[in-house]
Amino acid sequence: ELEFPLDIIKIKGYFKAVFEVRPPFKWSVRNTTTDETIWSAIITEGGAESTNSQVQDLSEKQLLQISKMLGSEWMQVAIYLGLMYKDLEDIKETESDVNMQKFKMLVKWKNGRNRGEATANDLWDGVKDLDVLPSEVQRVLQGMVHKFYPL
């Protein structure tokens, strides 16, 4: 176990770690006070490899599941995900069913990203700072993220 005091992290901004154990292995950074995992990665040989490449993009079925949990804040979610207001107006014009509007918004988000960049983790990263995100959506996305990145 290594300790990274916050005051040193603020000064240095990064750490270099050399491991005596041969990859692959999992490395996690945990808050010692809450025992919450802050960050985790799978360390592999051959240079840096994004763990996102090992995780599949969200399926349309998963997007539909998430869209059904969204309420009236769905347009704010879209803005946090980088969609334009014009895109939302187009969706609303072409689709009268609100649940399908929310679903089409998430599909548009997914289709606007590169392969491997529309994962549960990517979606969570986009919306986690939104203060009106329903707790059910938070719980489901965090569950999906932890399923792909088990601790």
Automatic annotation (TrEMBL):
Domain Death as annotated: residue spans: 59-131
Source superkingdom: Eukaryota
UniProt-listed Pfam families: Death
InterPro entries: DEATH-like_dom_sf, Death_dom
Name of this chain's protein: Death domain-containing protein
